[in-house]
Amino acid sequence: MKYLNLLFVGLIFFEHGCAQKKELPSATDMESFQDTVSYSIGADIGENLKRQNIEINYGVLITGILDAYETNDVKLDQKTRRNAMMKMQQSLREKEDISTQGNLKEAEGFLKNNRKSNKNIIETRTGLQYRIIKKGNGNSPKATDKVRVHYAGRLINGQEFDSSISRGEPAEFQLNRVIKGWTEGLQLMKEGAKYEFFIHPNLGYGNRNSPRIPPNSVLIFEVELIKIL
């Protein structure tokens, strides 16, 4: 798995950073470029461990690094360490599966309630939900067309994960090269229109995970179709 590769690489570099020091300095104690690099690598490792919900014992982690780098007296053999990492990997997969299924249940519950409680919501045969904020008066794009749009995307908790509006520059893309919800939804619009889309995970990113978008997330977009290119 990718996170394990990153962890292994990070630990290798971290070992080099700790080789010359038995005491761990604070951020304010760093005076050399080596200190800065060492701290940066450590911070990257910490962020990665936190993101993957990997629980560790800090003291034992440092002991393992020093044993491997300084004393060459590693207390656990390769087989034991390999089995431990495989067991951790399996545990993380199980936790991820539980989280993914929980997110899907939450997504379907949200969309069901959204359809019932909001009379302005329209749902297509595929399950795409949308609300018309502003009607346009131009042409509607085809799936093979390139379009220019302004948009803002958020999760059901209100957290924004992407926005061309915040970047101050419209986005341009071929309509059949984006998520299914966008390919379908934009074809319902006319130039100058502004819609709000509520996209089921099956029409979005599915169970793929990313730093900004958890697996099986409903994607909510406000999209303005500026022009068909």
If helices are DSSP runs of H or I spanning 4 or more residues, what is the number of helices?
6
Biggest sheet: strands, sense, closure?
A: 7 strands, antiparallel
**What is the overall silhouette?**
elongated
Alpha-beta classification: alpha+beta
What CATH calls the topology of the largest domain is: Chitinase A, domain 3
Number of strands: 7
Q: What proportion of the residues form beta strands (DSSP E)?
A: 15-25%
Give a short summary of the structure.
By secondary structure, the protein is of the alpha+beta class.
Supply database-style keywords.
single chain, 229 residues, alpha+beta, Chitinase A, domain 3, seven-stranded antiparallel sheet, 7 strands, 44% helix, elongated
